[in-house]
Design goal:
2 copies of one chain form a homodimer. With 446 residues, chain A is mostly helical. Chain A has 21 helices and 6 strands. Chain A has 3 domains: 111 residues, MgtE N-terminal domain-like (MgtE N-terminal fold), CATH 1.25.60.10; 102 residues, CBS-domain (Roll); 173 residues, Tetracycline Repressor, domain 2, CATH 1.10.357.20. In chain A, helix 6 crosses helix 8, helix 7 packs across helix 9 and helix 18 runs parallel beside helix 20. Chains A, B: Keywords: CBS domain, Cell membrane, Magnesium, Membrane, Metal-binding, Transmembrane, Transmembrane helix, Transport.
């Protein structure tokens, strides 16, 4: 018995030490510290924290773990944690939960929370409605400033939240203006809200796309923007910290999609899930690789006569791929940042063709000269030079037209654009080089 | 004479119409509308706006145009516009101006502005000091709340700015706490600032790197953070709109650097400058392309015997490149977002090796089978299959080790990583495939 006690003692105190160490940390740090553990372990850690604290930790955990916890935690605990969360965080936590479980949870929640969360769950994830919170400090335009102050005090007590912006609405809830701190602090308290508020207040539609919202925040340097529905009714608030998350997500998504990743893969994603996501894409790539191989195979006669031509295939194809990737990256990124207007793609195309021509001359001459010196054949040098020049032009064309074309048919310009451009530069590069070489072989000696 | 008048009339009124159209727009929109025009035209447009408005437009123009304007506008106009700008924007506008011109401008400015701007110009651009503004609403901890309110009122009048956060400092200017709106609105005005402020206030060091700051804002969802010097003295404020700009910049930079672009190229960059930036990089690529070509040339004997092997080079090399790009993108992005701790790279490596092995089996088997059917040689199929498997492993290794290695030697993991990984996958792919094929040719018939 004694021995057993000695064995369990250290385990239990290790857990206690762990908890007391975690208790000194910020909820975001706790989330980071525990996210790699087993679900059961995460649950026992969370049991040691108050509802309010768990609400904050939960928000910072990866989506999958949030869903798992919502599915598996005790129902009464869930129903106490959810009301402590911002409505948008609660909606995120519950977004992937099974319908039956969601119903059981909702049955336990106060009506006001159910309504807020349900509304949010109905908006698409990537719109203003999907990222906004419902909690906004509002006052009526008809209130006196003294009443407005009282309303803010009550609001702050309910939400435990600092009122940064206070919006004024009419009796139908339509957004009319915004109140500044100084108006509340320094004006005569008998004045009406409507007489001191700023009426020139920008808002975003609840249906606005999150990428568009990010561009608005970036361009105009807002810290927060009110969200209105189709009737001008104030329905929520998007703050710049939400926008920061959106921007990081969108940038990650674009980078990933360009190389055929899902857009949501993380280093923490389980390897088997990553493999399952990546392999189909690699198989698509394989198709295009065989296309390039088939082009090469058409020139078997030429290759049989002059096997060393094979050594120049990766040079012509690869350099086209590199130049195409440069053009593509500039274009995809500029499209994402809203820097290319609908009618501006021609200017971009002309620019890239100019760059392609100049680099074609420089790179073509260099590669031609080296090839001539290496193989001792000026004809071969000329063939490589010309093929390179033409392929860099093809790279510029593909690098601009693929993403612009994808956008025109409403597909994400980042999606698969990299593979399409590489296919063009490989196929064109091999075809140009081998057909020029075949002609040269026919009429001249290589 | 009359005819001439008729000719000039419409021109002048077109300008007037342009100006009255611009006058209805937000400064950010005006900047966007005029940024593509000639410098002289931009100057004549800006002449039509007040100093305050020009200050806001200027801030939103591209860096190069800001510098040009600072160099070429009338000195007395510049000296009236600068004081209307936030100190950080003023420092950005003046950052690239020639030393002589800067001195002439500084001589015309009020001493307080000169001091603020000079301090900011001394901080490296990519640190907290480089992105913060000097304007912060501060009160002394020893003040009564009534005095604090008075101080904020004066501050707001000077800066024309909404006080969102009010920081409390001791008599040496050291940050002690933060005041909430509710403390100013609802507490007894005779209370001391020190007795109502929140003392648990997070700050960032003036030397903190901007990427690190972006990660802090993202993780903890701040809207603003005070900046302190080495002595804990409050020296500025970073707001989340500054962070949004940093995040977009960093993401653009990473995307561009991965494909060998400068990190600062835009669609608006002049084509000749883009070409000058891109060509050196393409020449470096050319070196690695010749390396791959040299590997191929070593197997001339094999290629002479079986020319069709050339068709399989792009398949083995290209697929390795694609898989490597996927791994690389995940790792580079995770490093940028601070998701890979120093000791975690082994876990990432193991994960990618697992993915590489599984996709190696799947892709290898597929490519082997197709090759067998296409060329009617099971030996060739086997060679392609094995080479593909090994090359996908090499891709996983290179995709992880190149960026991790670059970071270990304090080089940006995005920089040139793409070319290095492609070089590995090309060289390894060609070598593996051709050497396996040579062995097979020696002992078996392909």
């Amino acid at each position: 018995m004694e021995e057993r006690d000695e064995q369990t003692q250290p385990v239990s105190s290790a857990f206690d030490r762990d908890i007391s160490r975690l208790k000194e940390m910020h909820p975001s740090d706790i989330a980071e510290a525990i996210e790699d553990r087993e679900l059961s372990e995460i649950r026992s850690v969370l049991r040691e924290f108050s509802d309010e604290y768990v609400a904050e930790i939960l928000t910072e955990l990866p989506q999958e773990i949030q869903t798992d916890l919502m599915e598996n935690m005790r129902l009464d605990r869930v129903s106490e944690i959810i009301p402590e969360m911002y409505s948008d965080d609660a909606a995120d936590a519950l977004g992937q939960v099974s319908p039956e479980r969601l119903k059981s949870i909702m049955d336990q929640l106060p009506d006001a929370d159910v309504e807020e969360i349900t509304t949010l769950l109905e908006y698409p994830e990537d719109t203003a409605g999907g990222i906004m919170r419902k909690e906004v400090h509002t006052v009526l335009t008809s209130m006196a400033l003294s009443e407005a102050r009282e309303a803010i005090r009550r609001g702050e007590e309910e939400d435990q939240d600092n009122a940064l912006y206070v919006y004024a609405v009419d009796e139908n809830g339509r957004l009319q203006g915004v109140l500044r701190l100084r108006d509340l602090l320094f004006r005569d308290l008998r004045l009406k809200v409507s007489s001191v508020m700023i009426t020139d207040v920008r808002s975003i539609s609840v249906n606005a796309d999150q990428e568009e919202i990010a561009n608005i925040f970036q361009k105009y340097n807002y810290l927060a923007l009110p969200v209105v529905d189709d009737f001008g009714k104030l329905v929520g608030l998007v703050t710049s910290d939400d926008v920061i998350d959106v921007i990081q997500e969108e940038a990650t998504e674009d980078m990933q999609r360009m190389v055929g990743l899902s857009g949501e893969e993380m280093v923490t994603t389980h390897w088997s899930r990553s493999a399952k996501n990546r392999i189909p894409w690699l198989l698509v790539n394989l198709g295009t690789a065989f296309l390039a191989a088939w082009v090469v195979s058409m020139f078997e006669d030429t290759l049989v006569k002059y096997a060393m031509l094979a050594a120049f295939l990766p040079i012509v194809g690869g350099m086209g791929g590199n130049a195409g990737a440069q053009t593509l990256t500039i274009v995809v990124r500029s499209l994402a940042l809203g820097e290319i207007e609908d009618n501006e793609w021609r200017r971009v195309l002309i620019k890239e063709i100019l760059i392609g021509s100049v680099s074609g001359v420089v790179i073509g001459a260099t590669v031609g000269l080296i090839s001539w010196l290496w193989m001792g054949s000026w004809v071969l040098g000329g063939v490589v030079c010309l093929a390179m020049q033409l392929n860099l032009l093809a790279a510029a064309l593909a690098g601009v037209m693929v993403p612009i074309g994808l956008r025109a048919v409403k597909v994400d310009p980042a999606l698969a654009s990299s593979i399409m451009v590489t296919t063009v530069t490989d196929v064109m590069g091999f075809f140009l080089f081998l057909s020029l070489a075949s002609i040269a072989l026919k009429f001249l000696a290589l």
